[in-house]
Amino acid sequence: MSISSQYHRLILVDDDPLVHFLVKKYLLVAGISIEVVSFHDGEEIFQYTSNNSDGNSVILLDLSMPVYSGWHFLNKFQVLDSKIKNRYKIYIMSSSIDPIDQQRVDEFEEILGFLPKPINDEILKKVLL
């Protein structure tokens, strides 16, 4: 049985292909039906969010990536028009245990939460349903 998510799409932003594979597998295990869009760095997701305003999406964002880090993306995302920003709900997914990262996460009102890696089906259910 498939369960529809409260969001139109899940936007996965991580430079590790294994994370993309696991999240997609856990969506199947959890029976969650949602479109998945994958990006591998912050620049790609910034281009997407600034040019794509359809639907209600959730972003799972890694912090440590090449080209643009998750932090770089968040700094640029903050200056976008609120009509665009309001279409996206952002969760940080990270294996970082650095308290400074957690403090920085708290500084961004756009971030709804901090998800520990590895992501599993139970975490995805809490975020998406």
TrEMBL record:
<feature type="domain" description="Response regulatory">
    <location>
        <begin position="9"/>
        <end position="129"/>
    </location>
</feature>
<dbReference type="InterPro" id="IPR001789">
    <property type="entry name" value="Sig_transdc_resp-reg_receiver"/>
</dbReference>
<dbReference type="GO" id="GO:0000160">
    <property type="term" value="P:phosphorelay signal transduction system"/>
</dbReference>
<feature type="modified residue" description="4-aspartylphosphate">
    <location>
        <position position="62"/>
    </location>
</feature>
<dbReference type="InterPro" id="IPR050595">
    <property type="entry name" value="Bact_response_regulator"/>
</dbReference>
<protein>
    <submittedName>
        <fullName>Response regulator receiver domain-containing protein</fullName>
    </submittedName>
</protein>
<dbReference type="InterPro" id="IPR011006">
    <property type="entry name" value="CheY-like_superfamily"/>
</dbReference>
<dbReference type="Pfam" id="PF00072">
    <property type="entry name" value="Response_reg"/>
</dbReference>
<keyword id="KW-0597">Phosphoprotein</keyword>
